[in-house]
């Protein structure tokens, strides 16, 4: 087995590396306040962990089962948790061949009401001491472990599994409520018949953490991530003979919490309280499986641990790369998400863009709910290079997309697909639909265009007016001459036929705005993602599966494709606005309020042109304080809008 190459230093300098077990290796990393964690953690690497495929880190919070001020006792118990397959985390690690992290949070006897191992309210109230925000400390441990594993050659997925039982099961459930966006899947049992609830009140009674989410903002300085929590796969269980109820005990709950639990959820643990919590999760749409096992007490027999393993396996989304044969080329498609859910084909911008970045921007909010196909269009991204301008045409792209749709429908057994297109991809989608709508359930156009004349003149007029406004002010002669030149050039371009538009349009979008004090693409320029930003983000490069050399080629390919399209008279003057009356499938049109790339009124123009769609079949969303890139500037809101739309349209079919 490959030895870890990173140095392990233990708490109190007891030893540098713990013994290698028969079925794997176990390491103890000391506390590192500079890295964000004040306590040590164990990292177990099972025998057979692969260096050739992406792994998922498993986390099992430590539960000593006792309170003691001697941290070494908690270290010893956490080591057992990390190394013995009696515990669900180690069992899953050995079965799945995934690494396991077990933190060593103390549970003090002298401060017995602070129930760290259950992530109770008392520990979340700690300030200015080592126990402050142990949830964030655990996240810091995860990042540290992922970094160490990467140094040893392992590839680790961004999200992680978390599991636990009894107090650590409660920790698991509560941690998932706080940080659902970090969790691939959550599994826990022995939970006192009580779940942390995604609601803020019962009637007039507020539900504060850990019962509910009423005071999330005040307590945690963060909003409840409702969409992420509802989407996170969760598995919770109790045994029908479980009599371990922590509710009556003061180390677990205070009197106010106890009274609320008994009044609204029930004093009887299983037949009342557990059932009520399960009903709330179901009614709120939480993606949770909640079970009660017969002939089982406060325990997790092997059959249950195996079910956790199967649950984790099932939660892992598909991530496949395929090449689709098209005339004289091959197109790259990355398929990620839930293969059992509706298929959405993503069309990137450009012409000449690539889909890799969309995995980071669009994927987190969609891949748990849908199967997403990220297509690199002809000559773009990881698709084969194309230098033949005769094949870089709208007509060829439409034919390519039809072939891709048929290929994916067959491969994933989908009768129809959804499509979403951004920027040029927004027009691309409409161009396809005007040839064939029979294979498509619905369409999302995001900051797209349909009328090139409107797009071109909108930006020209905006920049001309802005330059003239500045010229009316008291400015230096040098700046005045520069602005007068800009106005003259814009007038020249406006009166041209846009036949050779590549140089002009790039000047208009990238050089002129800076001189006029705005950005054509972004309302918030602090969120711009540059080529350098991408290359230096090693996690993003791994996610996109690009080396630095491969990524450099993306820009070269983009220039070829974009030049071919932008120096084509027909493309630069394309206008399908009047043809949108032919669209019959449900369509959502989304645009950033400050999108100067396609023109701030383009979304409304598109929406109004969809004349054969009734209001219940078309939607218009203008996202405030956002430019041409809502996936970067407002990803959560964009994701929420798309999920609601695609889920609604999927249910109709």
Description:
It is elongated, with a radius of gyration of 28 Å. The longest helix has 20 residues, at 452-471. Helix 16 (477-494) packs antiparallel against helix 17 (502-516). The protein has two domains: 11-315, 3-Layer(aba) Sandwich (Rossmann fold); 318-452 and 576-651, Rossmann fold. An eight-stranded mixed sheet has the order 1-2-5-4-7-8-11-12, with helices on both faces. The chain has an eight-stranded mixed sheet with strand order 13-14-16-15-17-18-19-20, with helices on both faces. The two termini are 50 Å apart. 40% of the residues lie in helices and 16% in strands. The chain is α/β, with parallel strands linked by helices and 653 residues long.
| Total individual domains | 2
How are strands sequenced across the largest beta sheet?
Answer: 1-2-5-4-7-8-11-12
Count of alpha and pi helical runs: 24
CATH class of the largest domain: Alpha Beta
Strand content: 15-25%
Quick one: biggest sheet?
A: 8 strands, mixed
Topology:
Layout: E1 24-29, E2 41-46, E3 54-55, E4 58-59, H1 71-83, H2 88-96, E5 100-103, H3 121-124, H4 134-151, E6 155-156, E7 160-165, H5 167-178, E8 183-189, E9 201-202, E10 205-206, H6 216-220, H7 226-231, E11 234-239, H8 255-265, H9 269-283, E12 288-293, H10 302-315, E13 318-326, E14 329-337, E15 343-347, H11 356-361, H12 363-366, E16 371-375, H13 394-411, E17 417-422, H14 424-433, E18 440-446, H15 452-471, H16 477-494, H17 502-516, H18 531-536, H19 538-544, H20 548-566, H21 569-572, E19 587-592, H22 602-609, E20 618-623, H23 630-633, H24 635-651
Parallel strand pairs: 3-6, 4-5, 4-7, 7-8, 8-11, 11-12, 15-16, 15-17, 17-18, 18-19, 19-20
Antiparallel strand pairs: 1-2, 2-5, 9-10, 13-14, 14-16
């Amino acid at each position: 087995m490959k030895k870890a190459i990173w140095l392990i230093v233990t708490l109190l300098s007891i030893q540098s590396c713990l013994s290698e077990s028969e079925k794997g290796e176990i390491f103890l990393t000391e506390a590192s306040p500079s890295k964000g964690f004040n306590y040590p953690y164990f990292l177990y690497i099972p025998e057979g962990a692969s260096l050739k495929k992406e792994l998922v880190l498993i986390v099992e919070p430590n539960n000593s089962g006792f309170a003691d001020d001697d941290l070494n006792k908690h270290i010893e118990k956490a080591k057992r948790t990390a190394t013995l397959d009696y515990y669900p985390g180690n069992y899953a690690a050995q079965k799945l061949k995934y690494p396991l992290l077990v933190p060593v949070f103390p549970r003090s006897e002298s401060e017995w009401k602070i129930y760290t191992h259950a992530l109770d309210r008392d520990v979340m109230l700690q300030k200015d001491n080592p126990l402050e925000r142990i949830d964030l400390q655990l996240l810091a441990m995860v990042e540290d472990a992922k970094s160490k594993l990467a140094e040893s050659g392992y590839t680790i997925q961004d999200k992680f599994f978390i599991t636990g039982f009894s107090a650590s099961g409660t920790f698991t459930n509560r941690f998932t409520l706080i940080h659902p966006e970090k969790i691939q899947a959550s599994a826990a049992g022995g939970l006192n018949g009580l779940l942390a609830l995604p609601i803020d009140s019962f009637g007039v009674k507020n539900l504060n953490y850990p019962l509910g989410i009423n005071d999330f903002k005040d307590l945690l300085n963060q909003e409840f991530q409702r969409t992420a929590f509802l989407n996170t796969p969760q598995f919770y269980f109790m045994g029908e003979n479980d009599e371990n109820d922590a509710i009556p005990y003061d180390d677990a709950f205070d009197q106010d919490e106890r009274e609320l639990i008994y009044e609204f959820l029930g004093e009887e643990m299983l037949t009342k309280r557990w059932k009520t919590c399960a009903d709330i999760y179901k009614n709120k749409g939480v993606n949770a499986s909640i079970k009660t096992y017969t002939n089982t007490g406060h325990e997790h027999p092997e059959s249950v641990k195996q079910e956790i393993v199967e649950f984790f396996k099932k939660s892992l989304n598909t991530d496949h790369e395929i090449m689709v044969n098209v005339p004289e080329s091959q197109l790259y498609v990355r398929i990620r998400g839930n293969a059992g859910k509706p298929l959405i084909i993503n069309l990137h911008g450009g012409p000449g863009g690539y889909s890799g970045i969309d995995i980071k921007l669009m994927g987190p909010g969609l891949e748990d709910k849908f199967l997403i196909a990220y297509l690199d269009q002809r000559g773009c991204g990881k698709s084969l290079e194309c230098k033949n301008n005769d094949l870089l045409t709208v007509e060829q792209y439409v034919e390519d997309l039809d072939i891709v749709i048929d290929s994916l429908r067959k491969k994933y057994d989908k009768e129809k697909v959804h499509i979403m297109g951004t920027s040029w991809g927004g027009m691309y989608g409409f161009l396809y639909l005007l040839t064939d709508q029979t294979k498509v359930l619905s369409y999302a156009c995001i900051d797209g265009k349909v009328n090139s004349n409107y797009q071109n003149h909108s930006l020209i007029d905006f920049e001309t007016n802005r330059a003239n406004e500045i010229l009316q002010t008291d400015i230096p002669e040098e700046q005045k001459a520069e602005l007068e030149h800009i106005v003259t050039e814009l007038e020249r371009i406006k009166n041209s036929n846009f036949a050779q538009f590549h140089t002009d349009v790039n000047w208009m979008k990238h050089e002129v705005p800076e001189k006029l004090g705005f950005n054509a693409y972004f309302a918030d320029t602090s969120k711009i993602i540059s080529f350098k930003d991408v290359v230096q983000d090693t996690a993003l490069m791994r996610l996109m599966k690009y080396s630095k050399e491969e990524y450099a080629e993306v820009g070269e390919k983009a220039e070829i494709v974009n030049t071919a399209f932008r120096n084509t008279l027909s493309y630069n003057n394309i206008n399908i606005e009047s043809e949108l009356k032919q669209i019959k499938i449900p369509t959502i049109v989304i645009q950033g309020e400050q999108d100067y790339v396609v023109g701030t009124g383009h979304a409304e123009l598109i929406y109004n042109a969809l004349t054969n769609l009734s209001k219940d079949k078309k939607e218009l969303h203008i996202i405030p304080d956002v430019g041409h890139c809502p996936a970067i500037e407002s990803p959560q809101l964009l994701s929420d809008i798309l999920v609601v739309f695609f889920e609604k349209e999927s249910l109709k079919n």
